[in-house]
Each structure stands twice: as C-alpha cells, then as structure tokens.
Amino acid sequence: MLRAIFSHPSGRIGGTIVVIYVVVALLGMFDVTPHSPLQQYRIDRLHAPNMIYWMGTDLFGRDVASRLMKGVGQSFFVGFCSVTLATFAGTVLGLTAAWFGKAWDGLVMRIMDVLLAFPAILLALLIIAIAGPGTWTSIAAIAIVYTPIFTRVVRGPALSIKAREFVDAARTFGSSRSYILTRHLLLNLVAPLTVQVTLALAWSLLTEAGLSFLGLGTQPPASSLGLMLADSRNLMETAPWLLIFPALAIMISILGFNLLGDALRDILDPRTRRSAA
Amino acid sequence: MTPLLSVSNLRVGFGRNPLENEVVRGVSFDLQAGETLAVVGESGSGKSVTALSINRLVDFGGGKIISGAVNLTRTDNSVLDLAEAAEPVLEKIRGSEIGMIFQEPMTSLNPVLTIGRQIEESFRLHRGLTGRQATAAAKDALDRVRIPDAARRLKYTPNQLSGGMLQRVMIATALACNPRLLIADEPTTALDVTVQAQIMALLGELKRETGTAMIFITHDIGLVAGIADKVMVMQAGEAVEQGTLGDVLDRPQHPYTRHLLSAVPHFESGRAARSDYVRGQIKEAKPALKVDGLTVRFKVAGSVFRRSPGAVHAVENVDFDLMPRETLAIVGESGSGKSTTARAILGLVRPTRGGFSTHSGRIAAATDPSVQMVFQNPYASLNPRLRIDSILAEPVIAAGGRVNAETRARMAALLKRVGLPENCLERYPHQFSGGQRQRLCIARALMLNPSIVVLDEAVSALDVSVQAKVLELLADLQREYGLAYLFVSHDMAVVERIAHRIAVLYAGEIVEIGDAASVLSNPQHSYTKRLISAVPSIDRRNQHFELDTRQVPSLVRPPGFEPPATQWRSFGPDHRARAEA
Known about the structure:
The structure holds 2 protein chains of 2 kinds.
Chain A: H1 2-7, H2 9-29, H3 64-100, H4 102-117, H5 120-131, H6 135-162, H7 165-173, H8 177-185, H9 190-213, H10 225-232, H11 241-268
Chain B: E1 5-14, E2 22-31, E3 36-40, H1 47-54, E4 63-73, E5 79-81, H2 87-96, E6 98-101, H3 105-108, H4 115-127, H5 131-144, H6 150-153, H7 163-174, E7 181-185, H8 193-210, E8 213-218, H9 221-227, E9 230-235, E10 238-244, H10 245-250, H11 255-263, E11 289-299, E12 311-322, E13 327-331, H12 338-345, E14 353-358, E15 361-362, E16 371-374, H13 388-398, H14 405-417, H15 434-446, E17 452-456, H16 464-481, E18 484-489, H17 492-498, E19 501-506, E20 509-515, H18 516-521, H19 526-534, E21 556-557, E22 568-570, E23 575-578
Parallel strand pairs in B: 3-8, 3-9, 6-7, 7-8, 13-18, 13-19, 16-17, 17-18
Antiparallel strand pairs in B: 1-2, 1-4, 4-5, 9-10, 11-12, 11-14, 12-21, 14-15, 19-20, 20-23, 22-23
Helix pairs in contact in B: 4-5, 4-7, 5-7, 7-8, 8-19, 13-15, 14-15
C-alpha cells in the first residue's frame, strides 16, 4: 500500500507533505519547539525572520515558528478528532440506513439532506453559537458538518453491495446481521472510506482555520493557524511574515491531503488500477 | 471471384505493448458475399476481438492491429484494407457497409431516445434522409424485422420493449443501410430460448432476403448448426480449425473441436437423461423436501392518489416433492418464477401462502442448515475481500459453530473433493477462474452437510466445457453424499444432463412435471413443446425456426384475484401436465 502511494506521482508529493505535517504536528503538540510558543521576547517584537526566529516574531515578541508548530498540532488534533467522529457516525448511519431501508433510511437521509443544505462553515458557526466556543465544541461542530458526506459515501455502495449474491448467500447460511454488516458490507467499503477520510481531513483543517479566524475555535493564548491569521490582519504591511507563514501552512497541508486523496482514489479504484497481476 | 472479405494473418494486441499482450495470433479467413461464417470459441479465445478488428471498433477498446490485412471489397468493387484505413473512412463504412449487432440489446440502445430516432440516425448519417423520409424509412426497417404495429412502436423508448423486441430493433438499425456484411457478436446469449429461436429465424430470413454476408460469433456450437455455412473454431487467439459446417461438425480434425463437440452438453430430446435414480425403487422413502401450494405475490406499489393496481403473482400454487438422491430441475424462461421459487425455499423471499417441509420437519425459521444454495454468478457470490478460509468458515460460524482444527480439516477435504488444490485456503477469490469459483461455492454449500442443495442457474455463467465438468462433479457429489438437488435453469441441454425429474414453470405456475426422459422426449403442454422445439441442437441443421411474436402474459392481477383450480392430465406413471382450454 505504502509502496503504491509513493510510486503514484501525486501520491508521492501528497504523502511526503502529509508525513512532514504529522511530524511537525506531533512535535508541536509535545512542545518540542525552538522557543516557547508563549514566551514574550519584548525587545524583539515584530522582528523579521532571521537565524534565531526562523519565521520572525509577532506583536508580543512571541516566536512565530514555535507558534506555527503548536498551531499545526492544534489544527491537526481538531481535524483528526472530528474526522474520526464523523467517519464513525457517518458509517453507522449509512450502513444502517442501507440495511434497514424504509422509514429509517428515509429519516436518516432526510436529516442528512437538511444538514447538507447549509454551507459547512455556516452550520459549524450555528452549532458553536449554541454550544459556546472552545476546542471540543469545534471538534463536535466539524464532526456534525462532515457526517452527512460520510453517510452518503457509505449508503450508496452499501445499497449495491447489499444486492450482491454473496450477501444473499450469507443470508441463506443464517449469518448474523452484525457479521454481514461488518464482514460483507463494511469490508468492501474500506476503499471509498479511505479516500473520503483523506479528503475530509483537508476540509476539516480549512473549517477549523476558518472557525479560529472568526474567534470561535481555539481560544487565545493557545495558538492555531486560523487564530494567527486573524492576529496578523492589522499588521499585514509592517510584518507580512505573520500572515505569509500560517497561510502557506494551511494551503500546503490542504494541497497535501488532496493530492494524497486523489492518489488513493486511483490506487483503490479497480477501474484505474494498473494491472498488477 | 474476389471474396467480400478476406482476412489474412491478422494479429491484434492490447495495452501499451501490443506485441506482449497478443490476443489474436494470426487469423486468416475468406468470406464470400451472402455467406455466413460462424466463429466459435470460449471466453478469451479472441473471437470477439477478431470480429471487432474487422470494423476497427477494437481501437476504442485499447487494441491495436499488429500486422495482417483485412481486405473488404466495397460496393464499387474497389478493395480496401481496413487494417490500414483512416478513421474518417471507417466511419463511412461502419453502418453503411458493415453492420453490427451486440450481445446485450438492453445496453446497446440509448435509454432516453425513442427507438425511432435511433433507427433514423443511421438513415440520416449514411443516406442523407431527413424528417418524414427518415421516419418512413425507420418504419419500413421495423416492419422488416417483423415488429408488429411498427408505426406506433417508433415512439417507444427502449424500456417499453422486451429484450427480444430490442434485439430486433438493433438488427433493424444494423441492416438500415443494407450493409453487405453483418457482424453479430453473441446476439442471442442474453435472451430466452424461445426468443433466441425467433431472433435466429429472423436472421435466417433476412439473410435469404437481402443476401447479406454474416459473421456470427457464439460460444454455443449447437446454435451454429442452425445458421452457418462455414465454421471457424478459435482457441487462445488462433483459428484451430475452419471448414464447411458439415466438415467441422461431422468430421472434426483438431482435438479442441472434438473436445468442444463431445464435452459440451448438447440437447438430445431426453435420450441423455440420467437413469441412476428411479422413483419408487426404495419403498416408503420420505421426501427430502415437500413444497405445498407455494405462492409468492409482490404487491405493486400504489401512491397516495392511486390505488395499488394489484399484485404480481410471481409464483402461484406450486407443489412438488423432492426425494433424497434425486434432482428436480425447474425450467422456465425469465419471469417464469423459477428463481423466486428457489429463493422462497431458502427463506430469501417470504411466501404469501403455502410452505415447505424437510424430512426434519416444517421449516419454520428463515434458514435451515439442511438446505443450502449455489448461486448463478460465481463472480458475485464470493466476497472479494475475504480469504477462502474465511469464506468457507462463514456457514459454520453462522450455524453457531467454532472454527477449529476439525473445521479446517473439513475445508481441506471438501476443497480436495471439488477438485481444488489445498493451498488455496490462503488465497482470495479473484485468483480463481469462474469454474474454480463455482467449485468454491459448491464446497461452501457443503460445509454444513446439507441434505438439499438448491442450484440457481449454477452453471449458466460458465464456459461450455467448464459446464460439463461442473455438472459431472455435481452428479458425483450427489451419489457420494446422498444429496437432493433442486436445479433451477433455463438451459434444456444442461437440464437433460443433470435432472431425474423436470418441472416446467410458465408465468408462475407449473405447467408440466414428470420424469425427465418422458417430459423431454414427449412433451404434452403446448408451452413445453414450444420450449423444447426452440432448443438449438447440432442435429438440427439449417432448420427453419418458426417466427412467433407472442409475448409472455402480464403477471399483474387485480387485488383479490384467485386463479381457478388446476386440472391435471396424466401421461404415464410419473408425468402430468396442466389441461389446456
């Protein structure tokens, strides 16, 4: 699998970017940074990037590189948690909707339609407005926003697999419902789910940055990419490094996940899979 | 006289490196005007690729002609090498000089356009007809393929017509511009036997009327006898034998041709029926399965504004019993309710009325480990993501058993018994061929030691020579384990090889049931007669199939409809048929 990703042209780039980000995020989360992200070096306020402050310092003299690592860690934490929740909820809802059909299917899918009708960021804002800002509410909000996509991604193929003969065969043996749902349906959904998880990670990073930018996600003094962008707004001309580095960080991470997602789709789709046999 | 089409040393390959993936390896043949050449071979023999290379449709599938010439004599007597011709020239030739019919009529027509428009297209492109002229030409084309009420049918979309009608429309389109060559790629494989007979009759008549030469591709050597002048047998990309119909069928030279002719089940009007089990030999034997007044109806959905128009009576009052060691074949065409019967017995469909009992008692629960099923499509009935050992373990787990050394020993023993190597337990389904997969399905069905195995078209998806081997295996297993088989099939030649008794299903009801030899050699009900006379056979050379445009009656009945009680007539000790008005 790893070999397949790294022999695919966009998989190689995307995979490398994602691996670097994960390392940076882990370092940031465990406070392995060049400086303390909260320490204020008053003399060096708004210092341009140099050998000591790789990405300069901000208005309070805090090291941008350290804050960026911390912020990447925070954004990834929110992204991974929310996508995990969304994947789990969406898979359960999608599978049960496809399997039981009828009223349950109608109910689940109509609720998902309603959720999908709102723009992602607007719906997340609505949920946070009700629950109050914070790391865990933004995780919950982003999870709820992306659940409908997973529900749909699971339900469609699950419906078609349900009609395949091996599911009928399982029913003639008297296999239990949970056995059929996990071994026959879920196992065959691994490929589309993997692709969807990778792409959803990219979107959730963007949503998290958006929420923090609006002051509804991560709360100061903790750092996150969106928050750093928001803080840099007024200093755009005097200290452009405050804006450029977080913006680049967001952009490259999304690019990386999208490239990886595209590569996975090619690799896992039997129609585009190059004959390995 | 120069032949209409002369193919010499044609080689076709696929992919980036066509020389390495050569599918057709040097095929040569000549075709005179008005002649019919049948190309016979199993899947992967290169028969379709050869045909698609003639009109160069192979280019669109990623194929490439490596070498060889395909010389077509055009209407003005000039000779064109199609292997070298440029695409714009080919576009003019396709449709006007070479027509083509594909296997699947349901998917070769555009579902959102009326059939009239689709036939007119050919006239517009090649004859420059427009408007009313084109419509009139399309109507004539439909008349020519014997579609009743052609003017009205022009406005139909494909979903309003049956498979047989759609194949007629395809033929009408292919013949629209009077091509001198018609390529028919398995044109009747997707159709029922009686419909197949009608299409074959139509092709035969049209050939005589128009003098069109035809290349007829098929895997069914029985069908060849009815239509071909010359036969070419292909194996692994090579033409291993070619000659006149009589030479190839009666004096086959190549071992593969002989193998095809001997291994493949041919219909022999009951002479080949099995005789290893006769009812009444063992006194007081209890039936393995007794089906009593089985009725399955599907309600047609109404809406808020419209009452439900009634129910589809898919299976109506079906009775039969099945003894241990006996095979009962249920034959019928699509829509006759044969698969629904099988699925009801397995508990996949809930019967509206009636029931069944095994020797262990009445089947109450949906599933009974003593009844197992083998499905039609070996490619769809094994979960591609599970290893073979997990697949074989599933029935055991479902029955509440544990996967232990004993289970693994049984798996290995069964795999060996069905003729698969033992080391395949660690492999995945895609590493097996269709025939091997069907053997896996059989092994899986036997894991729980059933007394009854329901085989739903179990060999229909397999290549003909593989069919024979699987049938042989089934018969051996039956003797060894004392199994009772319920064999659902549409293929009379296969049924003749495996069945002891036959039940003929038509429109959801049994119309005739009895001893296999007696039913096949001496059919009594008019439908059974029609079915049997439609079966192709190598003994029926150039026969004239009758054109019959009767349609299967609709099975939708008004709410509360009950069919009248059945009158049976007996013809011998174990053979009865429904009395006809």
